Every structure is written in C-alpha cells, then in structure tokens.
Amino acid sequence: MAAAPLLSLQNIQLTFGGTRLLEAAELIVSPGQRIALVGRNGSGKSTLLKIASGDVGHDAGKRFVEPSATLRYLPQEPDLSAYATTLEYVEAGLGPGDDEYRAQYLLSSLGLSGMENPGTLSGGEGRRAALARVLAPKPDILLLDEPTNHLDLPVIEWLQAELDSMRSAMVLISHDRRFLSDLTRSTVWLDRGLTRRLDKGFGEFEAWRDQVLEEEERDRHKLDRQIVREEHWVRYGVTARRKRNVGRMERLSGLRQDRREQRQVTGSVNMQVSEGRTSGALVVEAENISKTYGERTIVGDFSTRVLRGDRIGIVGPNGAGKTTLIKMLTGMLKPDSGTIKLGSALELAMLDQGRAKLDPDTRLRDALTGGGSDTLQINGQPKHVVGYMKDFLFTPEQANTPIGKLSGGERARVALARLLSLPSNFLVLDEPTNDLDLETLDLLEEMVSDYAGTVVVVSHDRDFLDRVATSVIIAEGDGGWTEYAGGYSDMVIQRGEGVQARASATAKVHRPGKTAMAPIAVVPAKRKMSFKEKHALETLPQQIDKLEIEIQAINDALAKPDFYSRDPRGFAEKSKELIAAEAKRAQAEEKWMELELLREELEG
Questions:
Q1: Which element (helix H / strand E) includes 246?
Q2: Which three-class secondary structure state does DSSP give residue 230?
Q3: 3-class secondary structure for 436-504?
Q4: Which of 104, 126, 370, 418 is most buried, judging by how many CB atoms fall within 10 Å of its CB?
C-alpha cells in the first residue's frame, strides 16, 4: 500500500497581473521521494515551491501538509539580516530535539566558521549558510530552489553526496543537469500553468518532454484540419440547403473555441552570435607565467597554447584564481614572470559572472542597444530592438522595464543578448549557465559548439563542460594549474578525482555569551566509496577498452612491411604514440585495480 503523502497541492490556481500563471498545478510528495521540478524560466516553478512552503498564497485549489511532518524551504535569495552570525542564523532553524552540533558540522563542511557577519557575506556564502539552515534539522520535506547557484564544484559535489545520504523527501529546482540526474527519481514538468508527472528521474525527462510536445503538435494539426473541413461545409455545403444544420454549426463553434483556448508552447530563444572577422590560428600562447599576491601564489609557472576553435573550460574552487588566470590569458593583466603572446585580429567579448555591467536603472531596450538608437547591428545587418528582444523571449511591453525589475533568469538572458550582439571571435564566459532554464541552456551549448571562434568558459556545471569543452584547465592548489584533454568527466578519469576544496584552517567556534568550547571530536563515519571513485570504477573499463583498440590500430599500422622505408618520420611518430597509449593503459589498469580492491575491502 502506498504511503500517505506528506505534502499535497491539488488544482492550484494563481493569477498575476491579469495573467494566469498556474491553472491546475499539482504536486504530491510522499516519504522519501526525490522530485525534479522543471520548466521554462517564468513558468512559475519558484512560485509553486513558495506555495508548497506556505510562503505564498493561491487563488484556488488545496494545499495539505501532514501535521507531524517537518518542512524546510531554501529560497533563491535567503535573508540573514536579522542575525548576528551565520551560526545563530543556522541554529534558529533547529527544532526541539534537533542535534545542535549538526549546525556547526554543516557550516564547517560548507567552508564557513559560524562567526561570519551576515551583512558582509557574498552571494555564495549566503547560499551556503542557508543550505546549512535547511539541512540541519534533517526535515521530512526539503524544498530546494536552485541550491547549486553560486556554489563551486567541491561544494556542489559535497552537497550532492549529503542529500543522497538523507532520508528526507525532496523537491529540487536546478539548472544543473548532472545534479538533477543523479539525485531525482521522479520529475514534475510545469508547462503553461499545468503540471505533468513522469515517474522517472530527470535523466529520462528530456526525451519524454520532446515526445509530449510532438504529440501535441500532431493533435493541433488534426484540429486545424478538422476546422478547415467544417468551414468548407459552412461555405459550400449549406448553399444548396435552405435550412442550416444547427448541430454542425455548434460543433464548428466549439472547435474554434478549443483552438483559441489552446495555450501555445512558449517560443524558444533565437540565439544568434554576431561573429567578427577570423582570428589568426594562434589565439593565446602562455609560457611559464606566474602571478603572486603577497605571499600567495595564484598562478605558478603555467604554460598553454590556445588555438582558433578551441573551447577551454576552467575549473577550480572559489578563490583559486580562475578570474586572475583569465585576465592574464586575455592580456588584461600582466604576469609577474613568463610571457603572454596574443594572436592577431582578436575581437574579445566577455560575460562576467555577476552581470556587473547591467545597471539596474537602465531600461531593457537601452541595455541592448547602448541607448540613443532603436536598432542593433547583428552580423552586419540592422535589427530593430523589439525584434531582438523577442528572440530572447521578451515582450514589446518590457522594452522600458528597468533591468532591476527583471527576474534572475531574465537578467541572464539580457546579458547573453548583449554579449552575442557584439562582433567577436574570442568569447570569455564566466558562469554563463547561472539562472538559465534548461531549454535556453541547450541553445547556449549549441551556440558554443557551433561558434567559429574560440571560447574560454569558467563553469561549475559538469554536464555543460562535458558537452562543450575540448580541454579543461583545473586549479591543483598552491598556484598549480594542469590542462587535460576532453570535458570534465574525461578530466576526472585522467586525474583520478574532481575539483577539491581549497585547504583552509578551521577556526575554533566561540559562541557569543558562552564559554569557549573545545573543538568537537567528530566520530568518523564508516568509509564509503566516494561518488568520484564509483564513477571511475564504472568508466575505467570502457577507457581501457578504447585504449586497447587504439593500441591494436597502431600495432597494425607499424606491422605494414613498407611503413618504415616509405615514411621513417611517420614510423617514429607512431612508435611514440604506441608508447604513450600503452602507458595510459597501464595507468588506467592500475587505477582500476586499486579501486576494485578498495571496493572489495569496504564491502567485505
């Protein structure tokens, strides 16, 4: 028998400014369920989650929460202003009987001491404190709105493991595909005010969504053809009769009404980049560059060559120096030592993470055109600003809306729209996926992949990097940076692990008005294989198989009788490739053996 739901929203209706945002939305959460709540930006996902949490009312429908169940909600913009420290803020979320030491454990795991002044926190630090507050009580229901926003990769992977270990029922809104795919078991799609449910995790959602939309399009086409047939009868079939068929006329009227009431799928972003002239083949060459601030080395003795068409991902924990490295690679900052050579005919366009150049008082149309004009030049062709706005899903009525009044997703689209209107052959994107819905993210990936120029992207989105990056540069710590071929998962396989948090001394906690306590001795949990170790154990055999095929192909080429006499230099290169491939295979086999022995030890 199925367990009774902990949370139930039925037939929820809500209207904003004369527009029906939610028509008949439903959300049923049973014990232990993990649900991905997905939909376009502006579809009402955050609003539905606020209704579920009780923070926002609704016009019609029923909301039920099991009286004995505990519920915690993570908003996109948490408010910590009423608290003196982050520890006080987190402890205020604990209930009777909750473990008070868990608050400090979570803060420490998230890189905070507990003594931070909430008024001085960055967006990422505020998000970490808010996460600690909602996780600390181990609630029955967790409602998380974009929990990975402003977090770096080490914290995202820690958070994923922490949530995976909890028994709480969860509803997750996130643009991070990998995060949703790994954690969720059901998916609720909010589309045009209605919800549809798929009893499978997010990994199965996109194929199902496309199938649903195709079926809708077929049904709409059938309805249109039926209306045409009925209208033809009205025009020509009735002329031979003195008396109209009243029932058939009513049927036609009903068909027309059905067609009018059908809400069309919201259009897609038309993401067209304004490409500049072709750059030289060499874009950036860095040789032994270093940068130090005080006693801390940010970049130490790093070398790389970036060629036209490369798509370089840069990853590392917050504070590792990713922005400093980008500034040096683009010529905006001189290294303390080493040399930077920039290629010819470069036209740089940059998207900053904080969207800092978006003045909140500037009108939307002026933000896109620069002011003083109603047109933009896209690939040398003039385009009216209203038409360009529509390409990015803005309505003509929003033309005079101040940027500060737009949602986070809308501001992200404005920043992208302005960036892509600038002629360029070298794009630098700092966290471009923040606040984008999944459909817009798909189009951004296609644009980056099809871009004729060169792209450097800083991102904590593992799936995005896997889809677009040709190589990944990772911060190794103490100023060390290493470049790996392929996307993020390829880097993890080659390196044996993902991005690690920056080492930092953990401060002792002194609670205001209390005697300083000795550091709490944390009893280590039973050792388990980490997510990275499990992933490597599962994927290394395929990697070894590929290397076997590569080695066999090289051996076949070297075995040809006339190869050496015909091409001695080519023979030598192939021999080097064979040595390198065999070394990679040996390394992969050794790593797999270590992990397999570890698995047997832990399971035994």
A1: helix 246-261
A2: helix
A3: CCHHHHHHHHHHHHHCCCEEEEECCCHHHHHHHCCEEEEEEECCEEEEEECCHHHHHHHHCCCCCCCCC
A4: 104
Asked if 144 contacts 171 with a C-beta cutoff of 8 angstroms, the reply is yes
Sign of the torsion formed by the C-alpha atoms of 384, 389, 394 and 399: negative
How confident is residue 181, by pLDDT bands cut at 50, 70 and 90?
A: very high
The pTM of the full predicted model, rounded to 2 decimals, is 0.69
pLDDT band per the 50, 70, 90 thresholds, residue 69: very high
From residue 59, give the alpha-carbon distance in Å to each of 56, 65, 328, 538.
10, 18, 54, 49
Backbone angles phi, psi at 409, to 5 degrees: -65, -40
For 307-324, give one letter per residue: b (16+ CB within 10 A) or e: ebebbbbbbbbbebbbbb
pLDDT (0 to 100) of residue 602: 67
Q: Cα–Cα distance between 604 and 590 in angstroms, integer? A: 21
- For 174, phi and psi rounded to 5 degrees? -160, 150
Q: pLDDT (tens digit, 9 = 90+) per residue, 249-282?
A: 566 566 556 555 555 545 555 666 666 677 888 9
Query: If you search the block for the tokens 């909140």, which residue do you land on?
Result: 360
Residue identified by tokens 């390409």 is 391
Q: What sign has the CA pseudo-torsion 132, 134, 140, 144?
A: negative
